[in-house]
Amino acid sequence: MEVEKGEGKAPIKQHNTTMKKMIKQPHGGALVRLEKGETNNPHGRPRKWISNIKDTGYKVSEVNDCIQVLLSMTEDELSEVSEIPHATVLEKTIAAALKKGMEEGSLHVIETLLSRTYGKPKEQAAISADMTVHRIILGM
To answer: CA 12, CA 43: separation in Å to the nearest integer?
Structure first.
């Protein structure tokens, strides 16, 4: 069975991007002015990473389980993950990101993965107020 090009996929919308106007600026640069109905982003905003993972067959719970397991590994174990031939791309990618974060001394990767699996911690704000209550009695 031969598959025709684009079969099973939504057609890509072609946007009119040929009517751009270049407006010269005093500093030497130029602004691009688009006509009504034109766009500089014809394919739209890219899908979120987790949406792409779902399309490949992973469930969100499987992604979270993978993150939890990799976060509990030692540095040597993370290095071994990239050498295992049957490790998934998800496992290799997260392991590589964790290793890079450790080498750079950055907690950003760990913070991102923890907030992905466990959610962000609740933020608390301290509020203090001084109040005085005045009673006014009117005699009628």
So the answer is: 8
The Cα-based distances of 32 to 16, 36, 64 in angstroms read: 14, 13, 43
Domain spans of the chain? 49-118
Quote the pLDDT of residue 2: 42
Q: In the prediction, which pLDDT does 4 show?
A: 46
* Amino acid sitting at position 77: E
Q: Which residues pair with 32 in a beta bridge?
A: 22
* pTM over 0.90, yes/no: no
User: How much helix, strand and coil, in percent to the nearest 5, is found in the chain?
Assistant: 40, 5, 55
125 falls in which pLDDT band (50, 70, 90)? Answer: confident
CB proximity list for 50: less than 8 A, separation 6 or greater: 60, 63
- Angstrom distance (rounded) from CA 123 to CA 35: 45
What are the angstrom distances between the C-alpha of 136 and each of 104, 130, 139, 140? 66, 20, 10, 13
